[in-house]
Each structure stands twice: as structure tokens, then as C-alpha cells.
Amino acid sequence: MSRPWSPSPALKASAVLHAGAAVGTLAAPSLWPWAVGALVANHAVITVAGLLPRTSLLGPNMTRLPAAAQARREIALTIDDGPDPEVTPRVLDLLDAAQARATFFCIGWRARQHPALCREIVARGHRVENHGDSHSNLFSLFGPGRMRADIAAAQATLSDITGQAPLFFRPTAGLRNPFLDPVLASLDLQLAAWTRRPYDTRDGRPEQVLRRLTRGLGPGDILLMHDGHAALAPDGRPVLLSTLPVLLETLRAQGLRPVTLQQSLT
Hints:
Elements: H1 9-27, H2 32-50, H3 67-71, E1 74-82, H4 88-98, E2 102-106, H5 108-113, H6 115-123, E3 127-130, H7 144-162, E4 168-169, H8 180-186, E5 190-191, H9 206-214, E6 222-226, H10 239-253, E7 257-259, H11 261-264
Helix pairs in contact: 1-2, 4-10, 9-10
């Protein structure tokens, strides 16, 4: 299944610039240095856009929940890089205790190693979404064929294991290139980034991670956390396990209700 795709305004402008540069240099060869300079600047902008996980220059990108969800004081907890057999079950227990729902962006190959854990995530009322099959650090350098194959492999794996087709995709570290948007359209997936990022794969200090998640916290925020590849806190535990209980209590105190990304759309 696919959905119609149309390039973003920035990509349309890029295409027009390329066409104009070609026509202009054919009509007036003396203009080629200016045309080359304009194209180099354009490619620099497109490249930088791919390095900005929250930008919408390359296509639609969910960085906050819809207005209706904000009005309901909903918030989204999104947890990446699992499933992890040591961390994920403990995260599920903490979420159950707080009656909170979360979205787990799972890696395809890890899901195949721990299919029962993926099914448990769904059985407990959460959603499993697509985080790619390989979780390659070079994902943003993939061409359209390889990119589609990687995402489609995870989509097939996660759909088969959980019985639910993922609705959202998040690339490795949020990095991408202009090929991603048409690929996602062909797979009927929506790109989802975040509002707040705690850098919890690099920083094991619970107080700093929590501060990044809660500073200016409000309805509609999408929070990024990691059960896989999490940094270790001073007590040797993955930092998510040290911060999540306090975060959940903070959400309760502020009257914010954690829902899945899918629930926020209803």
C-alpha cells in the first residue's frame, strides 16, 4: 500500500534551480560560474537539512502532536533502539505502574531476535513502530533502493511479529536525505522525529537527561528516549531506568497524559 507523494517546497525549488541552471548556461555559457555556485549552495542546504532531524525541508516530519492532542494535554513517550531483553521488560513494568502508554521504535534485526518481547509491548497497550532493519549509521547515505529495502524489511518483520503494521518511521539518529520522503510515501509510513532529545545514549547522568526532557515541557511534546544503546548511570543501570520513574511522576503532576503516536491522531 502506498500514498501519493509530492516533493516538499524546498525540493521543488531545488528542481527548478537545477533546470534553470541548465537552461541558463546553454543560453549564455558565460553564466556557468554563477550557475555552479548556485547549485553548490543548493546542495549544501539540502545536505544540512538532512542533518537536522526536526526540519521539514525534505518532507513532512512529525515533531509535535496534533492540536487536538495538545488540547487533551497528551504527550508522547517514544523509546528507540529496542527491543532489549534486559531493559525493555523493566520499562514496560514502569509504564504499567503509571498507566502510561509509549511508542517503541524497534529495529528489525533485534525484533527477529526477541519476537516475544515485541508481542509483549503490543499486548501491554503500546505501539511498535519502524526504526529500520539494520539501524545503520550510514542510513542517511543510502540510495533510494537500499533505503526502501531496509525500511520494508523492518516493516515486514514488525508487522508479522506483532500483527500490526507500523504507521511511523524514524531513521537512525533522525538523519536522512531527499530520497526518504518518496520511499516513506511508497510504504505508507509517516516520518516522526521529536520535540525533546535527552542525548541518553551518550550522557549517563540522570539529572541532566531528565532536565533536557522536562525543561519547558508541555502538551503535545514528543520525547525521545532509548531502551537499546542507553548510556549507563553512575549506579551501572541504563539511564532510562533511572530517569523514567521521575519523568512519569512529573507528567502526572503536570496533568500530562502519555499516549502512543497513533492514539494522538484520533
